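User: Okay, second chain of the day. Same drill as before: sequence in, structure tokens out.
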Amino acid sequence: MGKLERVLKLIEEGRSITDISRDLDIPLSEVEGMIKILESMGYLQLIETGDSACERCPLKSICPGSCIRFKGRIYQFRANKARK
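Assistant: Same drill. Structure tokens below.
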């Protein structure tokens, strides 16, 4: 099994990028690069997050929002790329 397949399997298991880096003993930047490759190949799809959570927050009138906004990326498996 190649590195890309191992990364995809660990993502499928719900592992974090940090966990994958540690488990495979590869730099975090390499894992991030492999995730971009998997995305370009259609195995993962980036989920766009909006500011809707901030709009519903009762503290929005006093909060700048930058302290609690999620700044990471969320991916999901693409349905049309079934694993064999």
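Helices lie at 3-12, 17-24, 28-40, 52-56.

User: Thanks, on to the next one.
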